[in-house]
């Protein structure tokens, strides 16, 4: 009888310890998840950031291409260089992954390159070349959130084409370079009239490559655009867009709790969108440039296949040995 009592006591003790251990593990896991979810933007980077080209991931690249090629229309557009894509998986900030299709093919991007005007304005304010004011703050918000052409033209006139080009070409930003297909460019007012400063490769007035748009967002979230504080200001301006079409139309449905930082554009058959998605279940940058009359719908329908590609690539990544 005594042996039975001892045995029961040991079983109960083990059960309690096992439960406590399980609770501790669960608690730690939850804490880590919460910490990862609650990371504030821009993220803290101790050393210089890795260049976007060096983040290209072979597995993600292959999976992305296969996912896009499943759709015959998309495959055709890609083959004709009428569709370009860029994605950055930010799920693991210690292992950021980039992939792109036609990502160095510069295309007309309508209003998306207004982010270049925002960057030039922030740089000018930081360096004392443009005096900040409530009017300027209002125009920058209108330019990005509502894509207001009049506000954008006022900002272009304030900073000038030379400043915009200087900032885009600067060694710190490297957002436009002829050697890598061009990139972001604004060389014309929005709404017509006035002089122009078209980019040299294709003579485009409002241009982008998906790689350099990804690069813009990547540098912004790491506090590398102008300064950490100015990057934070740009993030706030780009947060919660007023226009809910293209990427945002889908994100509103599948990721209602995520923060979305975004700029898009459309003109005739040219449709573009870019978004930084930062939420409990999603952390990534997605960019698309389309030259097709159905571009708006295509961009809406791209979100979930792009998410699928990133998720698939993560599942194939071997855990690092500690």
TrEMBL record:
<dbReference type="InterPro" id="IPR045155">
    <property type="entry name" value="Beta-lactam_cat"/>
</dbReference>
<comment type="similarity">
    <text>Belongs to the class-A beta-lactamase family.</text>
</comment>
<dbReference type="GO" id="GO:0046677">
    <property type="term" value="P:response to antibiotic"/>
</dbReference>
<protein>
    <recommendedName>
        <fullName>beta-lactamase</fullName>
        <ecNumber>3.5.2.6</ecNumber>
    </recommendedName>
</protein>
<dbReference type="InterPro" id="IPR012338">
    <property type="entry name" value="Beta-lactam/transpept-like"/>
</dbReference>
<dbReference type="InterPro" id="IPR000871">
    <property type="entry name" value="Beta-lactam_class-A"/>
</dbReference>
<dbReference type="Pfam" id="PF13354">
    <property type="entry name" value="Beta-lactamase2"/>
</dbReference>
<feature type="domain" description="Beta-lactamase class A catalytic">
    <location>
        <begin position="136"/>
        <end position="289"/>
    </location>
</feature>
<dbReference type="GO" id="GO:0030655">
    <property type="term" value="P:beta-lactam antibiotic catabolic process"/>
</dbReference>
<dbReference type="GO" id="GO:0008800">
    <property type="term" value="F:beta-lactamase activity"/>
</dbReference>
